[in-house]
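Ligand-bound model needed. flavin-adenine dinucleotide.
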Amino acid sequence: MTELIEQLRADLGDSAVLTGEAVAARAVSWANPASRNARAILRPADTAELALAVRRCADAGQPLVTYGGGTGLVNGTDTAPSDILLSLERMNRIESVDIHGSTMTVQAGAILQTVQERAEADGFTFALDLGARGSATVGGAISTNAGGNSVIRYGMMREQVLGLEAVLADGTVLSSMNRMLKNNAGYDLKQLFIGTEGTLGIVTRAVLRLRPAMRSVCSAFLALDDFEPIPALLQRLGSESGGTLSAFEVMWRDFYEALAETGKHELPLGSDHAYYVLVEWQGGDAEQDAERFENSLAAAVEAGWIADAAIAASERQRQAFWGMRDDIDGLRELLDPIVMFDVSLPIAGAERYTSAVFERLERCWPDTFRGVTFGHLGDGNIHFMLTTGSADHDSQTEAMQIVYDELKPFGGSISAEHGIGTEKLAYLGVSRSEEEIATMRRLKQAFDPGNILNPGKVLGSPS
Ligand SMILES: Cc1cc2nc3c(=O)[nH]c(=O)nc-3n(C[C@H](O)[C@H](O)[C@H](O)COP(=O)(O)OP(=O)(O)OC[C@H]3O[C@@H](n4cnc5c(N)ncnc54)[C@H](O)[C@@H]3O)c2cc1C
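Prediction:
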């Protein structure tokens, strides 16, 4: 194996191959600050270098784990000491923006926020947005089919990708850099690399879809005392916004109380309500949109659905609303050691489901359990951040079992947007049939017969 590392140094240059102390100096990921343990870290500068490195590793049967920004939440970038980590950190360029075609071509290591800012500077919106925008990469978002804050309006990352380039397990460069909205010429191969968590290929470049910039955005923080009107409120705002409702983020009281405890936020509403909803809709005329937005909320107040509301009067206030919703770091500190969950189910069942889960968890750990509930409920997506009071593996596994057991009657998914990685391996069968999993294995075998790409992730070890 030292031979392989020497060969890679000769191919890519010394500074592109880190070993020893330089590897250990890096943390595993955002969620895991432990020191990285891997044979080496490769930092190729472009697709040609990356493809050559993959070819060398394939020949040597060397496992590779791809790394974007390390913000994934299911241990997808964890390495065994014998793995090589393949980091896209130097492949972070925005190559071009096609103003008339409304596309942006980027290298896969480009940071999401950089892409958003460039789109804005050119008069567009890049529609994927999430709390980890400052570190998450385009490649990571593609590989996990990330969702985030505007899915209700624009769809998940899959909807933002027109084309991509990927390097296969044998080093083949598969260029599928389509720029058109419509292209039904045979199989749409890019789909193989979206949401497959780097197990079928390494995404190296992408053509992203840009949307028109919105001229106005109206935001409000709402308080509700019952769950019942929430689905109806979602539909009403969707329809009264003319289809431009772009966020419907629900926070349960436990989440809001925990925010208060962090002492970091100026809470816009009292903390004695059962639910809080951050809503946002977009439009083309600031004055008219604001009036329609206010009228729509006033009607919901009159109907008795909304108990209290704060409408953002400035961009600063809007950012403060989002700062509360996105303060995952603050809540993580408060609830340490935590287990995070990311499930989806039909919205009507959300309250029954969360109550059933919390009842069982409280019964198991009456003195130490604490949890907060929030999520992109407009997409049927709920996140829990829970602590059983212990970092002990068995208690965390027991908590997972409860959360996923209770999901079964609702036909929900154990992963709405974060993926499977290694964290949810044991539970894939809750949301996917035997036939689906067998077909996934056949694809993995066909694309990566040597099992060198992110081995063990999503499907576990081959039997
Ligand atoms: C504070 C916070 C908020 C978040 N909010 C959301 C949210 O709202 N919605 C959501 O969906 N996610 C969310 N996430 C999860 C995470 O940000 C996304 O999954 C993100 O898209 C991962 O990007 P990354 O570059 O950090 O990927 P990484 O963590 O580096 O990798 C994630 C997975 O993708 C693979 N991978 C990375 N790059 C490539 C590539 N170029 N080719 C092939 N495989 C690759 C890795 O091997 C790994 O399996 C959040 C995370 C944090 C920390």
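The first strand starts at residue 17 and ends at 18.
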